[in-house]
Amino acid sequence: MKIAEISTAVVALPADEPLANAPNNPGGSRLTVILRLRTDDGLEGIGITYLGAALTRSLRHATQALGELAIGEDAADIPLIRKKLFAAAGGSGPEGMFSLALAALDIALWDIAGKAKGEPLWKLVGASGAPVPCYASGAMMRELDLGTAVKAAGRLVESGFTAMKFQLGLPGPFNLDAEIERARLIRESAGDEVALMCDVNQRWSLEEALKIGPRLDEYALTWLEDPIAYDDVDGLARLTEALKTDIAAGEYLYRPSAFRHMLEAQALDMVMIDPFRAGGITGWLEIAALAHRFGKRVVSHLAPEVQLHLIGAIPNGWIVEYMPWFNALYEEVVWPRDGMLAMPEKPGLGVAFDRRALARYTVEEASSK
């Protein structure tokens, strides 16, 4: 089962998916890198990765270059391929562009592994197959006006979500009253039974977070995500100790050693793993195992089509972020029902690229044999 061909592309996916951030970016697009690996016995594995910046085309080139190094290798030997790629990375690894490119390749290799055995990914990584909880994300972005965000909370409840996330860290100078009012009205719209998470995306200073944190206790948030700079470990440790609300962090981290540093400093309550920065499924599982040793629950960031398999497989997995940014890529997608995601039964990831969508959205591509 040798890798015979790799192709990569940049796709400009519509940013107007109703659950994502359509209202504040109508007609916009989201550049994403996709990868397809083909083996000499006819299997195809698919992978994706995401940078969310002007360097997306550079990320595709990096992904293509790494994939070309894997041509001729046994697709079943993921550790060997990763070792070869790490050795080739030199000074560019193991963070940044290298990890993001590696992620697409690693995800595709796991997809092939499942297809080779005729089993879905969740079986390969040890999940029971039971549905996993998810939360709606992306419908209450900070750029939305208050009324639209509040209505979105009610709409999500009506559509069956039992957990959802909104953003604070509002545009402009820090305004404590405006932040609190937004939290209050969204909680009121969602109701008391809904698990409500809040993402700040590092937009507060430590002093601001310490000021607003106790005020948010009234709204029973499930977690406060990335309230301050991700690398201010001392500040995050102080917040974790000072606030009643749990602190979630980790999406901006790449290596297990960075997570270990955070865990040892007691700088977070919940470990959030981004599959792209983690370098794919292999790195994700390593970080999740580390979190388990520290007694911390794991929550996911982006790519629910990948992460539902993983959250369901680990003993400390809790909930999947349902942010359907990449749904337009696939022939079929997993939609939540009553706040849960059912495990797919098809082999590998359980999803396939929609060829018509690729033809429509591809803006740059390359292929090598």
Descriptive notes:
This protein is an alpha/beta fold. The protein folds into 2 domains: 3-118 and 355-368, Enolase-like, N-terminal domain (Enolase-like, domain 1); 123-341, TIM Barrel (Alpha-Beta Barrel), CATH 3.20.20.120. It contains 12 helices and 13 strands. The chain has helices at 56-70, 78-89, 96-117, 121-124, 146-158, 176-190, 206-216, 233-242, 256-264, 281-293, 304-311, 355-361, and strands at residues 3-14, 29-39, 44-49, 132-136, 163-167, 195-199, 221-225, 247-249, 270-273, 297-300, 317-322, 340-341, 362-368. The strands form 2 sheets. Strands 5-6-7-8-9-10-11-4-12 form a 9-stranded mixed beta sheet, covered by helices on one side. Helix 9 (256-264) links the parallel strand 8 and strand 9. 49% of the residues are buried. The model has no long low-confidence stretch (mean pLDDT 95).
Summarize the entry for a quick read:
Keywords: Magnesium, Metal-binding. One of its GO terms (biological process) is carbohydrate catabolic process. This protein is 38% helix and 20% strand.
Give keywords.
369 residues; alpha/beta; Enolase-like, domain 1; TIM Barrel; nine-stranded mixed sheet; four-stranded antiparallel sheet; metal-binding; Mandelate racemase/muconate lactonizing enzyme family protein; magnesium; Mandel_Rmase/mucon_lact_enz_CS; RHMD-like
CATH architecture verdict of the largest domain: Alpha-Beta Barrel
**In terms of per-residue confidence, which ranges show pLDDT below 50 for 5 or more consecutive residues?**
none
- Protein structure class: alpha/beta
Tell me what portion of residues adopts beta-strand conformation: 15-25%
- The tally of strands reads 13
Average the pLDDT over all residues and give the rounded result. Answer: 95
> What's the Cα radius of gyration?
20 Å
Number of domains: 2
Enter the CATH topology name of the largest domain: TIM Barrel
N to C succession of SSEs: EEEHHHHEHEHEHEHEHEHEHEEHE
Strand arrangement within the widest β-sheet reads: 5-6-7-8-9-10-11-4-12
The CATH H-level homologous superfamily of the largest domain: Enolase-like C-terminal domain
- What overall geometry do the principal axes of the alpha carbons give? globular
Report, as a whole number of angstroms, the end-to-end distance: 15 Å
> Strand count, sense and closure of the main sheet?
9 strands, mixed
- In CATH's first tier, which class of the largest domain applies? Alpha Beta
Helix content: 25-40%
Number of helices: 12
InterPro entries: Enolase-like_C_sf, Enolase-like_N, Enolase_C-like, Mandel_Rmase/mucon_lact_enz_CS, Mandelate_racemase_C, Mandelate_racemase_N_dom, RHMD-like
Keywords: Magnesium, Metal-binding
Cofactor: Mg(2+)
Domain Mandelate racemase/muconate lactonizing enzyme C-terminal: 146-246
